[in-house]
Amino acid sequence: MKVAVFSTKPYDKEYLTSANDTFNANLEFEFYEAHLNKDTAILAKGSDAICCFVNDNIDADVLTQLVAFNIKDISLRCAGFNQVDLDKAKELGIRVARVPEYSPHAIAEHALALILALNRNIHRAHTRIRENDYSIHGLLGFDLHGKTVAVFGTGKIGATFAKVMKGLGCNVVAYDPYPNPDLLALDIPYVNLDQALNRADIISLHCPLMPETQYLINDETLAKTKKGVMVINTSRGGLIDTKAIIRGLKTGQVGYVGLDVYEEEGDLFFDDLSNQLLQDDVFARLLTFPNVVITGHQAFFTKEALINITDTVVQNLMDMRNNQIKASNRVA
Ligand code: NAD
């Protein structure tokens, strides 16, 4: 089975090749650095399947081209699938498999890393020390113990994060239309949206990006939070109206922002653009705040997660070859 791998980075090549060997899968990978879009889809011609990541654009146009190349299998090396036009894929008979779970700990722990970096000003302290400045004025933090953390979305990642924060002595409240029995068993209360916004010292987003959750954090919802609230997003950029959060930062309504994802990240993240001028003025404004910490969609990036991701991708491709895709992994 010949597989065109898009948005390839050196670690993708290394871990996919290793999983292919481990499983004796005999997959022939063709690695492309290019993102998949209507202009690059031609690279897949001659392959039997494709393998994609979060910022590949698998829209109706791309799917139509793939079918014309007789490609009917897509193995995603991520959990989210909002980058795929699933309705079109189903209409064209294209099968799409994802990696539903690889390490909820990786993302939950990264959310905690953002919280601690912001709260204890680690990013600013690091810069000061490197400049021989050992003053601590301006770096005052607060104890996490006893603070209220609202977890938006309590699936695999949100539930793991909620347990971590409870372990630190925080009061955890959950907001999710489908309560998680594991968290109910830990006496973590489920509250409605307004209650979650009103009570939280820290809001952490772990729900998927869907039409109902697009811009969940906006001017109106931010007006209902405590002044100086901390907002953490390790889920998908589109959950936050970035211009609204900038307005909140400017008035002090928002005290801290930690982001691993950004609504326009497709043009920025995963590439070295250090020799180019930043064209995104909204992102540029975000970078000016001392109380904003941003990482470039790296929450998933642990050794354990990469092994689990590539093992599942290879397994999904073998299952596609045998026409036996696991129902839990299949999204189209
Ligand atoms: P999951 O499907 O296990 O859980 C999602 C939860 O969100 C579910 O419990 C669901 O009921 C809830 N939900 C749905 N609509 C909601 C709404 N309107 N309000 C509140 N909650 C709602 O997913 P998961 O594996 O925990 O992943 C969560 C998200 O994390 C994914 O959608 C993905 O976008 C993101 N993610 C990011 C990274 C990263 O590297 N930054 C890595 C993996 C996943």
Distance between the termini: 20 Å
Computed structural class = alpha/beta
Report the sheet with the most strands, covering strand number, pairing sense and barrel closure: 6 strands, parallel
Mean pLDDT: 97
Indicate the percent of residues in helices.
Answer: 25-40%
For the record, the CATH architecture of the largest domain stands as: 3-Layer(aba) Sandwich
Number of helices: 12
Rg from Cα: 21 Å
Strand content: 5-15%
Our count of domains comes out at 2
Q: Sum up the overall morphology in one term.
A: globular
State the order of secondary-structure elements, H for helix, E for strand. Answer: EHEEHEHEHHEHEHHEHEHEHEH
Name the hetero compounds present. Answer: nicotinamide-adenine-dinucleotide
